[in-house]
Specification:
With about 140 residues, the protein is α+β, with helices and mostly antiparallel strands. The protein contains three helices and seven strands; from the N terminus they run E-E-E-E-E-E-H-E-H-H.
Length: about 140
């Protein structure tokens, strides 16, 4: 999974590769902003996995679909520790953490597509009537 250009951090690359264990995707609505997505390599494609919201009162909220992301077992994997540092610094109003305004207004995430459960559908077969042509004699 990757974090794109949604968050700019002084002196850091805009791409972070992170491990997202046991996670779910999010449905994000304004005024919240998706800041992490599942990327194009995983399924479902480009779905939000973390979102930020800043209230007019100055309060901040960060939501992720998996708290396991920041557990001791997963922090040393890929760049999860760096990601944790960025999220916590944004929550604590660090001036070096700035949301990219262009990506905040138009995030590059896909809509959720409902996929039918094939197993349950296979247990309920349905007839389909077709008229066939007379075979040639």
């Amino acid at each position: 999974k990757r974090v794109g250009d949604d968050v700019n951090v002084a002196g850091m690359s805009n791409d972070l590769v992170f491990v997202y264990p046991y996670g779910a995707t999010l449905s994000v609505q304004k005024p919240s902003i998706p800041v992490l997505s599942s990327g194009f390599v995983s399924y479902p494609l480009n779905r939000p996995v973390c979102a930020f919201c800043e209230l007019p009162s100055g309060g901040r909220l960060g939501v992720t679909g998996s708290c396991h992301l920041f557990e001791d077992h997963w922090l040393p994997k890929e760049e999860n520790a760096t990601l944790q540092d960025i999220v916590f610094r944004w929550l604590l109003h660090d001036k070096d953490i700035v949301l990219n305004e262009i990506d905040a207004r138009n995030p590059d995430v896909n809509d959720y597509i409902f996929v039918p459960e094939a197993r349950s559908l296979s247990e309920r077969p349905k007839n389909c009537g077709q008229e066939s042509e007379e075979p040639p004699k």
